Amino acid sequence: MGRVAIPAVAEERIAAFSGTAASALEFLREAQEMPSGIAEFDAAYRILALPEKTGHPLVEASLAEKILRWPAGGAALHSFLAWRDPFGLHCQARLSAPPDWATVTYFLAVAEQLSARIPASSSSPERRGVVDRLVGRFLAS
Fold first, then answer.
1. Are residues 24 and 37 in the same domain?
2. In this model, does residue 91 exceed pLDDT 80?
3. Structural domain harbouring 22
4. Do 98 and 42 share a structural domain?
5. In this structure, is residue 96 part of a structural domain?
6. Would the pTM of this model clear 0.90, i.e. be above it?
7. Closest CA to 65 of 125, 113, 134
8. For the chain, what is the domain count?
9. Percent of the chain at pLDDT above 70?
10. Spatial CA neighbour of 68 closest among 34, 41, 45
11. Has residue 128 been placed in a domain?
12. pLDDT confidence tier of residue 51, bands split at 50, 70 and 90
C-alpha cells in the first residue's frame, strides 16, 4: 500500500481540529509493517507499528497461530481488528454467528496475549484541537 503525502497546510488544519486525528495521521505516516513470520497470517493481516516504540513484533508466531486457528465448534472468525489509542487497547472480532461462551473466552485469551505485547499508550497533551477541548469538557461534566 503506497503512502499518500498530506500537504503541511492540511496537517495544520487537522491538528487545529483534533490533536487525536493529527496523531493518527502521524502514526500512519511513520508506522512500518511488522510481519509475524507466519506466511498465512501475514497474507491475511497487516500489523502496523512504530518499531522504535515497540522493539519487538506485536504479533509473534504463537499469537498469529491462535488468531488463525480459531476453535472448532464455536462461531468462526471472519476478521480480527485491534488498535491502541490514548483511551486503551481495543479488540474486535467479526464472527460468523453469535458467540458461545467458549468463543468469548478464547477471544479474551487472544486479547490478553496481545495486550501483554503492546506498549503503554502515550498522548501529547500539547496537541489539543477544537474537538479535543469539546470532548474534554463533556467528559469533565
1. no
2. yes
3. 1-30
4. yes
5. yes
6. no
7. 113
8. 2
9. 86
10. 41
11. no
12. confident
